[in-house]
Amino acid sequence: MYRKNRQTVRNQLLRSAQYLIQQQGLVSMRFCDIAKHAETSTGTLYSHFASKENLLVELYVERINDYVKTRQELLDAELNPAERLLVSNLTPIMVSLHSPNTDGLNFMIANAGLWQHAESAYRSQIEASFLKLQQITDKLWLVPIEQGKLLSDMAAIKQCRQLLIGYQRGCVLQSQNLFLREQQSLPSLECSFSTMENLLNGLDWLAPYGHIDQSQVISACRTQLDWHTKALI
């Protein structure tokens, strides 16, 4: 009889948890239901993950690494620096609007207590993944500064980054709110694009590197959305 190896079972448990989160939401998903959906025993589930928090952290790390990959690819994309920054900030909003409960970054930001109660080894994974994401995000800003294409002083750049992140997180969390989805009160993609474009246009760019082509940005975002959607399957 064929017997699944340990890594195969672990991946199956993660995909089952991911599916249940998408269908039921993070809070409603019961830990024991993961084993049932994966067609394995509760004992097997606990042999891989001692708690729901540990499993969720592993999913969270997967999603962070997905963003590391797509942001790394942005550095080589046929876009100018301002367009790259807009794509990197707009894509998480598009992913969230696409489907509820799908993005580990979203549900973990909204439920920070989950990863805070995970075991130390899992928290270390988060810290390492966050560091990678921070480094590649910093690079999207530092490259145009070092190349002399972004001329604003560091205080203005820091303020712009903070405003972009704050706005992005607000949109992401709103799009995960099932009540707002039912009421069709989610932030529109057009509004998000316009708000972020205005923030980036407020910086001092060497012409023509601050010009943002909407069609190119949306096309790049959709390419990244397709990749993230496939990664969730």
From TrEMBL:
What the entry lists under PROSITE patterns is as follows: HTH_TETR_2
A single GO molecular function term of this UniProt record: DNA binding
**UniProt DNA-binding residue ranges:** 30-49
* InterPro entries registered for this protein in UniProt: Homeodomain-like_sf (IPR009057), HTH_TetR (IPR001647)
Domain HTH tetR-type: where? 7-67
> What keywords does the record list, in alphabetical order?
DNA-binding, Transcription, Transcription regulation
**Does ATP-binding show up as a keyword for this record?**
no
Q: Protein name, please? A: TetR/AcrR family transcriptional regulator
Its source organism is: Ferrimonas lipolytica
